[in-house]
């Protein structure tokens, strides 16, 4: 698989809290009354393709228009979360890759931060 995009974010909750949230995309980790993740109108909840306890989660594509993608999350100490968007060749066009990157950035930097904040 080829890497389409990858970024790192530093989150405030402990790494295990972030990992647990990523493992249960159907359940808000703190039960605060809103869904996690906040899926856009054309997305479905991802399924867990692979995981390694407390440090890695790989999701299936939540985007029906690009179903062959994988979204890998690597959780490191100090809660450094690295997400990587992976695809088989041929890769989607640059405009699609930029849109996907924006979607994942929103998911991590807004939705996940809200879902795991104390």
From TrEMBL:
Q: Which domain of life is it from?
A: Bacteria
- Please give the name of this protein: Uncharacterized protein
Q: Give the organism the record lists.
A: Rhodococcus navarretei
Organism placement in taxonomy: Bacteria, Bacillati, Actinomycetota, Actinomycetes, Mycobacteriales
